[in-house]
């Protein structure tokens, strides 16, 4: 825009954008009060009322259609503005008294922001103003049928706009990608404009050359003033489905125009005019506290983010996350961690409450977790993590590449973990592919784990997380895992292994639409293709394709159970789950009370106060084998097409007195509905080892 001192323009920010206050001039006499001549306040120093296109009174200004809705009337006018109609005639049926303000109200409705790239700001910033008149008034009781005529002064012609349309189509074919993130779309568009459009210094002081203010000047002539930059950015971003606005204000106390763009729920400022030709941008995705030398108008309610988006392009930049844990961050490069300090703490030993967008990039060599805790406000997405080192988990008690505890939202993240060692691991208790404990939401994540080691003590393992207390949705795991252990009974919750989560704990825990292709081999108390131990949690629409094998040589073991979906299931329904993997459980010494394998569940435990449990629409197609090498000592050995064994205790409605409990015994109901087994079953215990097509055994303790 021409470098002149700022004249006050009143702006109002509404929920979806900005509306500009057009000032109604004082007219000479009462007979003129149904006509109005308004200059666009953005250009009130660029054009005079005499230069506005006049209404042609020789043309027919009648209409047979009268819209009674202001919205419908605005839509009708807007369509004609997009078509570049210089003369617009519409009918309006209203109970409002005809006035200048009514004419302005009608045009304001037509010019408001709609999200359409060829409407809203795109029209507003490319017209010099308009003349409007109520040319006919027909009264019908309390209603008026008004004929309203407008003459619009455009800065471009229909031919100019056709050229811009063709440019946009060609540009999208070259630069638009449906797989790109919104950040990538914004950056690509901004890069193009900053690289290809130059400021029009030759015409900046030529008041007669109005084309410099347009998207046409920026797109076709590759030279424009600030409105041209802003209009082209507005048009291209909205064409890609990204909410963008044009902001008018001052910069260095001179009139200026820039953009505001919506990203991750916040609006950020961009000034392509001032970043044009630069290698490193100073005005890209800034917050209102970091947008130097720019001021919006006095009455503009700023809804932009407080802070700007931090671009992370090096390992050193990660320090910014430690300093601003509630900030918005985006990766612009792959990072390789150095781990030079040999610390056991997470790299960012903080509670992260901001947004981290990996933007499809990878952080590799993560010997220790990236975060300690992700808070309920925290979001991490589109990030890949690699831990391909034999240093991994050697000294950690809890390890997952992303975080120890997640209370927030993790979406579209991927981990790749490789760890093989012949050394005994002493400290590790919890191991997860994404995080160790989930109290938030993990969705659309994948993990590939290839690990083998010997642990001094048992641990909880999950391909996505070791413990889940809330939601895991549409996640998957692949790889090969071999974990042997000495002490497999040191704590009640350890020794649980799952392709998705080791333990799914509580009525709010939910595993939905997940799949596992990871092979699990080792020393397991309970292991499942999806969940090791499920306690009151919900599980639906999950599939296992991985093979599970547990061989234990131990005298102290209580139960040893594996299942295609769940190892041990307590008091929870299982709906629409399928197993295609092969299952093998083997005991080589005495001590096991139960050794069981089930195509869907190794063991169903129905104690406490559950009256009914449903296993519905589940299918097993894998081989199920339960083997005891020393048949002298085992109490029970089972294999089942759907469940290996069912155990439980009495349900009492009265109290804790033994006689009362016995007399008040209520049966526990387990319903198998629409379940099928197509896999081969085997069990070699001569005492209690007959395989069952649905259940290997049903044993409720009374």
Set out the fold topology.
Elements: E1 11-14, E2 17-20, E3 35-39, H1 70-82, E4 87-94, H2 100-111, H3 121-124, E5 127-140, E6 143-154, H4 158-175, H5 182-196, E7 198-199, H6 215-219, E8 223-224, H7 226-239, E9 244-251, E10 254-263, E11 266-270, H8 272-275, E12 284-286, E13 294-296, E14 309-312, H9 319-323, E15 328-331, E16 335-336, E17 348-352, E18 355-357, E19 362-364, E20 371-374, E21 379-381, E22 384-388, E23 398-399, E24 403-406, E25 409-411, E26 414-425, E27 430-432, E28 435-438, E29 441-443, E30 446-457, E31 460-462, E32 465-468, E33 471-473, E34 476-487, E35 496-498, E36 501-505, E37 510-512, E38 515-522, E39 526-528, E40 531-535, E41 538-540, E42 543-544, E43 548-552, E44 559-563, E45 566-570, E46 574-575, E47 578-579, E48 583-587, E49 594-598, E50 601-605, E51 612-616, E52 619-620, E53 624-628, E54 636-640, E55 643-648, H10 658-663, E56 669-673, E57 676-677, E58 681-683, E59 698-700
Helix pairs in contact: 1-2, 5-7
Q: How many distinct beta strands? A: 59
Overall geometry comes to elongated
Number of helices: 10
Mean pLDDT, all residues: 84
Question: What is the CA-CA span between the terminal residues?
Answer: 87 Å
Helix content: 10-25%
Oligomer: single chain
Describe this structure in words.
The structure is a single chain. The chain has 702 residues and is mainly β. It has four domains: 11-154, no CATH class; 175-296, C8orf32 fold, CATH 3.10.620.30; 308-457; 510-702, no CATH class. The protein has ten helices and 59 strands. It has a 15-stranded parallel beta sheet that branches. β1 and β2 form a beta hairpin. α1 (70-82) crosses α2 and α5 (182-196) packs antiparallel against α7 (226-239).
């Amino acid at each position: 825009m021409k470098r002149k001192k700022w004249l006050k323009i009143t702006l109002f920010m509404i929920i979806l954008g900005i509306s500009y206050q057009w000032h109604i001039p004082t007219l000479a006499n009462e007979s003129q009060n149904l006509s109005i001549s308004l200059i666009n306040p953005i250009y009130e120093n660029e054009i005079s009322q005499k230069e506005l296109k006049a209404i042609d009174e020789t043309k027919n200004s009648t209409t047979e259609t009268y819209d009674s809705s202001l919205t419908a009337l605005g839509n009708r006018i807007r369509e004609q503005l997009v078509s570049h109609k210089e003369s617009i005639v519409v009918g309006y049926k209203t109970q409002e008294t005809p006035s200048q303000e009514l004419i302005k109200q009608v045009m304001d409705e037509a010019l408001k922001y709609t999200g359409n790239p060829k409407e809203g700001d795109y029209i507003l910033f490319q017209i010099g103003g308009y003349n409007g008149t109520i040319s006919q008034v027909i009264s019908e009781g309390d209603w008026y049928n008004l004929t309203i005529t407008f003459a619009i002064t455009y800065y471009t012609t229909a031919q100019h706009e056709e050229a811009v349309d063709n440019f946009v189509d060609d540009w999208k074919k070259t630069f638009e990608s449906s797989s790109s993130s919104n950040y990538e779309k914004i950056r690509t568009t901004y890069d193009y404009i900053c690289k290809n459009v130059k400021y029009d210094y030759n015409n900046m002081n030529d008041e007669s050359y109005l084309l410099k203010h347009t998207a046409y000047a920026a797109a076709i002539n590759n030279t424009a003033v600030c409105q041209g930059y802003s209009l082209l950015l507005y048009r291209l971003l909205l064409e890609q489905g990204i909410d963008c606005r044009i902001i008018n204000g001052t910069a260095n106390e001179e009139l200026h125009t820039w953009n505001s763009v919506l990203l991750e729920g916040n609006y950020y400022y961009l000034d392509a005019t001032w970043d044009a030709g630069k290698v490193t941008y100073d005005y890209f995705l800034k917050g209102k506290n970091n947008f130097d030398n720019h001021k919006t108008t006095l009455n503009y309610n700023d809804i932009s983010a407080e802070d700007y988006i931090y671009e992370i392009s090096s390992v050193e930049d990660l320090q910014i996350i430690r300093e601003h844990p509630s900030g918005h961050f985006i990766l612009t490069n792959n990072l390789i961690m150095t781990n030079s300090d040999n610390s056991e703490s997470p790299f960012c030993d903080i509670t992260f409450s901001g947004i981290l967008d990996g933007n499809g990039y990878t952080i590799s060599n993560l010997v220790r977790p990236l975060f300690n805790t992700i808070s309920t406000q925290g979001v991490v997405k589109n990030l890949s993590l690699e831990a391909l080192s034999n240093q991994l988990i050697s000294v950690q008690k809890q390890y997952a590449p992303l975080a120890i505890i997640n209370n927030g939202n993790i979406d579209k993240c991927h981990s790749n973990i490789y760890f093989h060692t012949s050394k005994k691991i002493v400290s590790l208790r919890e191991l997860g592919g994404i995080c160790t404990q989930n109290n938030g939401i993990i969705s659309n994540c994948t993990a590939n784990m290839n690990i083998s080691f010997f642990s001094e003590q048992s641990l909880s393992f999950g391909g996505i997380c070791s413990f889940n207390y809330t939601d895991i949705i549409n996640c998957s795991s692949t790889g090969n895992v071999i974990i042997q252990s000495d002490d497999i009974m040191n704590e009640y919750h350890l020794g649980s292994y799952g392709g998705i989560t080791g333990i799914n704990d509580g009525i709010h825990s939910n595993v939905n639409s997940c799949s596992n292709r990871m092979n699990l081999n080792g020393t397991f108390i309970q292991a499942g293709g999806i969940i090791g131990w499920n306690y009151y949690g919900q599980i639906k629409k999950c599939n296992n394709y991985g093979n599970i094998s547990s061989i234990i040589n131990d005298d102290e073991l209580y139960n040893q159970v594996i299942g295609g979906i769940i190892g041990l299931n307590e008091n929870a329904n299982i709906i629409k789950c399928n197993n295609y993997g092969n299952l093998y459980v083997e005991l080589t010494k005495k001590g096991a009370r139960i050794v069981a394998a089930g195509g869907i569940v190794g063991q169903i435990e129905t104690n406490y106060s559950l009256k009914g449990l449903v296993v519905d629409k589940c299918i097993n197609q894998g081989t199920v084998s339960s083997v005891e090498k020393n048949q002298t000592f085992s109490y029970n050995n089972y294999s089942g097409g759907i469940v290996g064994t069912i155990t439980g205790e009495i349900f009492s409605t009265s109290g804790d007195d033994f006689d009362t409990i016995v007399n008040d015994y209520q049966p526990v109901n387990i319903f198998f509905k629409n379940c099928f087994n197509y896999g081969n079953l085997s069990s070699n215990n001569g005492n209690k080892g007959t395989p069952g097509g649905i259940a290997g055994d049903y044993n409720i303790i009374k």
